[in-house]
Specification:
The protein is mainly alpha-helical and 292 residues long. The protein folds into two domains: 27 residues, no CATH class; 193 residues, Orthogonal Bundle (MetI-like fold). The chain has twelve helices and two strands. It has a two-stranded antiparallel ribbon with strand order 1-2. A hairpin with a 4-residue loop joins strand 1 and strand 2. The radius of gyration is 28 Å and the shape is globular.
Length: 292
C-alpha cells in the first residue's frame, strides 16, 4: 500500500486502486472513491411504450373478466378486429388519408407562420410592438370560439379545417420561438459585437442556435396540437376523416369504431412526437441534457 502525507492538509491520501487490489481498503472508502452518478440513467429503447402497454393489459383483462359493458367499451381484441375489417373494406385508409393531408398542411402553414412572426417580433422593436400583443390576444381566444366566424368567412370546406389546424399550431411555435430568441444571454450578443460579426453571421452563429431548443419545444406542442384541432374540425360538417368516421359511428352506437378512431389519433400523436424527439436529438446533438 502506498501512502502519501500532505503536510498542508494534515491528512493521508490513499492509493485506493492498489489498496483495493490488496484487500486493505474499507468498503466505505471504496464507495467514496467511485464517481457518484446524479440525474437520470440513459434511456432504454422503447421504454416510453411501457405505460400504454400496461393500460392495454388492464383494459383487456377487464374486458375478458366481464367488467366492461361491451355496448359502452369493448376490449382491445374487438377493437383490433374492427380495425382490420375497416382496413379491408377501405374505409379506414380513406379517412386516415384525409386526416393526414389536413393535419400536415395545417402543420406546415402554422409552423412557417409562427417562425416568421417570432423572428420579426424577436429581432425588431417595431415588429415586437405590432405582433406580440396581437398574438397574445389570440392566445387568450380559444380556437373553438372562432369556429362560427370562420365558417361565415370560409364556409365548411377544407379551407376552414386547415385554418383551424394552422391556428392551433401557430401559437405554440410562436410563443416558444419568440421566448427563445428574446431570452438569449446578452453576453453572447456583446461577444458577437466585439468580434465584429455581420448581421447574417450574428443570426446564423448566435440567434439560430440559441433559438432552436425553444423552437423544438413549441414544435412538439404544435404537432400534438394539430391532431387535437383536427378532432374538433372533423366532427363539424365533414364528409371524410377519422373524426367523421367516429361521428357516424356515434349515431349507430358503434363504440368499437369510435375506439378505433381514438386509437388511430393516439398512435399518430405518439409517433409524430417520437419523430420530432428524434429530429431534435439529431439537430441539437451538441447539447448535453438529461433527455440526451
Amino acid at each position: 500500500m502506498t501512502t502519501t502525507i500532505a503536510p498542508s492538509a494534515g491528512r493521508t491520501h490513499v492509493d485506493t486502486a492498489t489498496a483495493r487490489a490488496a484487500g486493505e481498503v474499507p468498503a466505505g472508502l471504496v464507495r467514496q472513491s467511485r464517481r457518484r452518478q446524479l440525474g437520470r440513467r440513459r434511456l432504454i429503447p422503447g421504454s416510453r411504450l411501457l405505460g400504454p402497454f400496461i393500460i392495454l393489459v388492464i383494459w383487456q383483462s377487464a374486458a375478458s373478466f366481464g367488467l366492461l359493458d361491451p355496448r359502452l367499451l369493448t376490449g382491445p381484441d374487438v377493437v383490433l378486429g374492427t380495425a382490420w375489417s375497416l382496413i379491408l373494406d377501405g374505409r379506414l385508409g380513406e379517412n386516415v388519408a384525409a386526416s393526414l393531408s389536413r393535419a400536415l398542411l395545417g402543420l406546415v402553414i402554422g409552423t412557417v407562420s409562427g417562425v416568421v412572426l417570432a423572428v420579426v417580433a424577436g429581432l425588431n422593436r417595431l415588429g415586437d410592438s405590432l405582433i406580440d400583443g396581437t398574438l397574445q390576444v389570440k392566445r387568450a381566444v380559444p380556437n373553438l370560439a372562432l369556429i362560427p366566424l370562420l365558417i361565415l368567412w370560409l364556409g365548411i370546406g377544407e379551407e376552414f379545417k386547415v385554418t383551424i389546424v394552422a391556428l392551433g399550431v401557430l401559437i405554440p411555435v410562436y410563443i416558444n420561438t419568440y421566448s427563445a430568441l428574446t431570452g438569449i444571454d446578452q453576453r453572447y450578443i456583446e461577444l458577437a459585437e466585439t468580434l465584429g460579426l455581420s448581421r447574417w453571421q450574428y443570426v446564423r452563429s448566435v440567434l439560430l442556435p440559441g433559438a432552436l431548443p425553444g423552437f423544438f419545444v413549441g414544435f412538439r406542442l404544435a404537432v400534438v396540437g394539430s391532431w387535437t384541432a383536427l378532432i374538433v374540425v372533423e366532427t363539424i360538417n365533414a364528409t371524410s376523416g377519422i373524426g367523421y368516421m367516429m361521428s357516424q359511428a356515434q349515431l349507430y352506437a358503434q363504440s368499437d369504431i369510435i375506439l378505433v378512431g381514438l386509437v388511430v389519433y393516439g398512435v399518430f400523436g405518439f409517433t409524430s412526437d417520437a419523430l420530432v424527439r428524434l429530429l431534435e436529438r439529431k439537430v441539437l446533438s451538441w447539447r448535453r441534457t438529461l433527455a440526451s
